[in-house]
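Exercise 7.
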Amino acid sequence: MIKYNLQMPQNVYSGECALENIKTIVEGYKKVAVFTDKGIQSTGLLDGIIDLLNETGVEVVIFNELPAEPTCDQVQSVIDQFKAVEADFIIAVGGGSVMDTAKLASICVTDEYGVRDLLDDPSMGRKTIKTLAIPTTAGTGSEATPNSIVAVPEKELKVGIVNGAMIPDYVILDAQMIKNLPVKIAAATGVDALAHAIECFTSKKATPFSNMFALEALDLIINNIEEACLNKEAMQAKNNMLIAAFYAGVAISASGTTAVHALSYPLGGKYHIPHGVSNAMLLVPVMKFNEPVCRPLLAQAYDRVVKNPELQTEEEKSAWVINRLGEIVEKLEIPTSLKEYGVKDEDLEILVESGMDVKRLLVNNMRELTKEDARKLYLEIM
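Solution. The predicted structure, written as tokens, is:
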């Protein structure tokens, strides 16, 4: 028997009017720092949250200067500003980058170390301020994970900082926060959650704990993602996607993603391709590569997500799952070629070298991936 454990937020609120729980959560605190971005503010999503905070009488300070897909130094700059206001509680309202930054802030209220120090030794981080995460996309699962992803400019690569202290203390999953999400963003982030679920389920580090959450996430996503993204009024489907993204995040904490995410990191770090899009590009090619060693697991996934199963053999079931992943990417009109982002043929070897450097995730892949394998996978999407 292997050893395994499960880490997740202590308090999670979902369902109708879930945001109302903010008033109870912030009781006893004096100054709340709200991490968000200007895009979210411009939509009015933050207004209701600020109104709820104002009802409690707590002082509110807003940090909204965070760019999309930030570098480690941009994150440190925001954290330095945050440290200066001496807030005693953090609320993150946004997607993965916002939540990741807020999580890093919760362990960086010190002069002993900074974000760059954590790149080398994440274990030195210690939480000193509690956090509430309110995702505005159904995708990254950052509200459930101990991970924070930052770009490292000199490496042209995204790097994951992993420390259990960064798991948020509170999470609110309210479908109203994603009701008006643009289809393009909903699709890319939704497929990110899909990748989390299928990768964690087929990871070398998968456990009974992670499989429970990964399979439920996969079921919810495959049967809700298109409706949730394409129908603005499909609130039940949107709620299911929020829950699924959270479950997939929990699965990451107990298991881990694999070669899809590993090979996607250079695409974000060098070409600034949105994280969900780069994962969508690689999802089917990598799953086809892994299929010979993951076939029984993919067949198990088929049995879980298909409500009236007709296929009989593992080979048929496995092929159906991979085909379904491709259908979702196609229906949601997510780009599948690097050419659309200006990636040149001569960049191939740089991508291979950078992708193979993400050993933290490649070691989770059930089928060993060589440089030549990575080269072929990148060529499939060039």
